[in-house]
Fold this protein.
Amino acid sequence: MVTRRLWLDLETADYAREALSFPGLRILLRVDSETRPSGTAATTETRYFATAVDPGRMTPDELLAAVRGHWQVENGLHFIKDRWWDEDRHYSTQPGVALGFAVLLNAVVTVLRATADPADERPLRARADALGWDVEQAIHLMAGKKL
């Protein structure tokens, strides 16, 4: 079971907007998450966020949903790209090469997700590894064709 507590700070947000030259900053958020797996001790984690959202336009539940959405992107894309394909360690001094690599990895992850066969229960990485051994299938998949 996960319990999340949301703390909003509007006054410090005003100070941070001016002191840090962060135009548009409206809310500083603190989210405390407490996880209690059955039979184990609770763990807590505190995360901080800054947003330009108008405090009068979003409820606390909507702000928590936005925080969870942020982590969906982090865990669903960035974690995969860095953990599986070691993206953070790849760099280049030539302009545009690192960006091109990042764009290519985004495309690969998108294609793998969009073309997933519901009957195929393999995880994304297993499907990517299989395509590494079947280049013809990978080319057809990237071209939007099936063999």
